[in-house]
Amino acid sequence: MSRKNVSDYYYLIVGGTTKAATTSLYTYLADHPSICGATYKETRFFLDREYPLPSKYRFKGDVTEYNELFTHCHEEQIRLDTTPDYLYCSSALERIAEYLPHVKLIFSLREPISRLISWYRFARQNGKLPESMSFDQYIDQLFNYEDIGQRQGSMQPEQHWLVLSQGCYASYLIKYLERFGNNRIHTLFYEDLAAEPLIVLHEICDFAEIGKDFFDDYTFKVTNRTESMRNTELHQKYRTLRFKVRKWSHNKPLIHRTFRSVRRTIEPLYLRLNTRSDEGITVAQETQKRLIEYYKQDVIDLHELIGKQPPWQIFFTENSHE
What we know:
Layout: E1 11-16, H1 22-30, E2 35-37, E3 78-82, H2 90-99, E4 103-109, H3 112-125, H4 135-152, H5 169-180, E5 185-189, H6 190-195, H7 197-208, E6 228-229, H8 232-249, H9 253-274, E7 275-276, H10 285-306
Parallel strand pairs: 1-3, 1-4, 2-3, 4-5
Antiparallel strand pairs: 6-7
Helix pairs in contact: 2-5, 5-10, 8-9
């Protein structure tokens, strides 16, 4: 007899920080025959309704609609939901724990300063920041927004203004470890995934208890790379169109697969036409020192929390501790 309740299925949820190759990770894992990816890479289902990211389905008191994201899956497959921002939403943690008893969670983390640089590029790419704003000015603005948020008890709602404190991973991850335990949480680093994807995917397969031989001859391609755009307005329109088509087609498997296939064909051509050579981002020494000081204790806490040292040398040199 077919299982019908959301709680009956096994899930693999990929969370963690944004700009940490979670899109690539979703692609790799969804290709595995034992795993079935949700029709949205980021379902965002368990986030609070006011969380500043759009989604077709959002938790409204029950999880009935969550099944709509997996109608194409076989009963025995592990269901994959890749939503980085679950890490930052305590309500999502509690909902996942309550409604998905057979879940394991993966968190992908990235060196926080390089993540901020990537966010800066991403926000300019999508017209959220003016082209004239330097990285150092962006960091000044982030610290200003954080100070205002602490004084007023609220945060600026747009996501690209929330990213400073979201680089303090240990302060978020500890809540998941306390709720789910070490055996249901796997932490990886973006830098390791970029350098040795096969090793990282083998470790994930062991964690998920699925066969890892599938990846031995697999071609690991980077997807959703942050680019510098020639025309940011055109890119905004392209992203909006892509989201609308995906929202409409996600529960129409044949159309959705066709759209995905077409996108994989035309998107590289579009990006070739609308991207320019990536300019180097200049970071003032004072800005770097300020960020190292801001994140240093959390990096130490993260090392102690997960029992392995992050591969972020900037935080483990003598100069960074002066």
